Task: structure prediction
Amino acid sequence: MSTSSRDQFILRLRAEIPSIENLGTTTAVEVFQNNSLRPILKFQNDALVHVFLLDLSSKKIDLKTFNSKKRQLLIDTHLRTNSNLRQLLLGMVIALFSIDEMEFYNSVYKELNKRIFSMLKARLKDQLV
Result:
């Protein structure tokens, strides 16, 4: 499979999010977030949640035993302190970048990583709290 066919395949997989609007005042990072990160996170949602829950289970943490506030804190803490999990989840997102997206990501990866984990935390909290 050539790079261009890989990129085309990856782009076709992504979920469409019709509510996203790119206004003329948005930065390149915001456009990337809306056009790439949000659709990838939506597409990978079930897998990302499953991996997070598997990691908790492997550490003998039962999310059901926590109240809503403690679940939120657990999600924040677990994502902040568990570097192996962070790298795994990040890899699940980055693996679905096209070559052009990978080049852009590489130029501003610190800011994009913050955005990825911020959006991922919000998704986990929406579904698990």
Notes: Residues 109-128 form the longest helix (20 residues). Residues 32-128 form one domain. The CA atoms of residues 10 and 96 lie 6 Å apart. The chain has seven helices and no strands.
